[in-house]
C-alpha cells in the first residue's frame, strides 16, 4: 500500500482486483488487518454461503452506524444465535413444566423480559421511588444495549452479496482504518491472502525445532517440538496437519494462538503462533467442542483428531 491518510487511494484497481479473484474463485479469502479491527472477505461457496461474504470483528456502535449510513446491510450472526438459543432454551424449559410450576416460571420469565425492556429499573418499584426518578426511553435503552456489544465477540458483523463491494469502498474512505497517533500512526492496514496479487510480498513463516529427551518408564524418549510463528492462515495450518499426520504415525499435540481480532468463530481464524509436540502420544481432551472461543488445542491420536477451544 502507498499513501498515509487513504492507503488504497493510490491504487484504486487493487481492491477491485482482489474481489475479482474472489468472484472467480481464484482466491478463497483474504484479510484486511487494521489496528482496530480485522475484515475477512470470503469467496462464494465457503462456509456454506452461496455469495461473497465479509466479516468484521470487533466492531463498535460508531462503526456499525457509519456502515448503515453508507448503505451497507449487515447482520450480527453471533447475537442472533444467542437470542435463538435463549428462546429455544426457554421454550424447552417451559414444555417440561406443568400446572402451577409452569405458570410461576412463565411469570418469572415475563418479569425478566420486563426488566430487559425497562433497562433493569423494575427494582425502583419495590422501593416506591419509581415516580421520583426519570426512566430512560426505549431509544436510550436500545442505544445502551448497542454500545454493550462493542469489542465483544457478539459485535462481529456479516456482510454478503453486492454489499461486500460497497464495504470495500467504505473501507477505502474509512479514516479510522489508519491510526492517527501512537506506535502505529500512519501505518496502512495489512492485506493477507493465500494467493499472489499485484504489489504483494511473499513472506516465509519462521520455524524452529528443538529435540529433547523425556523420561519414561523404560528410560528416555526423544521428543521434538516445532514452533511456527508469523501470520499463519487456515490453509497453512491444514497443510501442516496433513503433512504431520502420516509423518508422525498418527500422533501429535498442537497449541494454537490466534490473532485477537479474529477470535470469534468466523470460520477462518488467523493464527500467529503454532507449537507442535512430535513423537509424543497425544492426550484425549473431553469433550471436543467449539463454542465462541477460538481453537486452542488440536490433538491427533491413532489418526483421530480431538480439540479444545
Automatic annotation (TrEMBL):
List where in the cell it is found: Nucleus
Q: What are its GO biological-process terms?
A: nuclear DNA replication
UniProt cross-references to InterPro entries, sorted A to Z: Donson
Question: What GO cellular component is one of the record's annotations?
Answer: nucleus
Question: Could you tell me the superkingdom of the organism this chain comes from?
Answer: Eukaryota
Q: What sections of the protein cross the membrane?
A: none
Region (Disordered) residue spans = 83-121
Sorted keywords for this record are: Developmental protein, Nucleus
Name the protein family. Belongs to the DONSON family.
This protein's name: DNA replication fork stabilization factor DONSON
> What gene is it encoded by?
DONSON
